């Protein structure tokens, strides 16, 4: 799998824990001070231990200055896309352009239904996600009056605003071939997790995205590839990402150069604050250097 040549970004995944209530703020400010690019916050509204993701992000924006936030990934069945787009645009305007949207078609359907949401078949999940992307882009378009009539969503003369401060990216979390094709045709990025899409599966998944991009006349290198990774920086362990900073650097650089990923969102297994600092200060610079060196060597060969 070729390196798509995209600029690298790095972030941290933060659980929206209600106890302790300051956990997310501590992690976000640590990531911000350490110079990371992104904070991703998962969205499972039916999880009783979790705060609401959008409410939480709105409290993290004022205590940070540079890091960008994204839903990793937003639960579409429980968040109508018109309101998701309105919330994202509002936070983007407040933060000066520091919000992106990770979007998920849905999972844990019993829990979704338990909150009054729909239970969708795989085909329905695909079609609703495609409609949602269209609706959200319309809401951000600056048009004066919006009309849309779809299978799942409709707009009947909505007057959108305020506009976002920047072009918000829509990054879809998905694994199936049809949804990967949709990402290639319509989305700005892909957000898989290492546990569900190990490196050996990535070439075939990239291929589906790239086929979708080609079908839509898009450049595959324009699609961001975000990898959620977990592990521990420290003593050697049996896991792929359990070990020294040097092991992490070699592994993540390989994910870029051999497997086509460009952005890494780290979910520490323990000692979260210290792990975020180690990731930002020891791993990230090493990965950037290793990738730049190999890319430079390729240009000069």
UniProtKB/TrEMBL annotation:
Highest taxon of the lineage: Bacteria
GO MF, any single term: oxidoreductase activity, acting on paired donors, with incorporation or reduction of molecular oxygen
Domain Luciferase-like: 18-230
Protein's UniProt keywords contain Aminoacyl-tRNA synthetase: no
Keyword Oxidoreductase in annotation: yes
Alphabetized UniProt keyword annotations: Oxidoreductase
Protein name per the record: LLM class flavin-dependent oxidoreductase
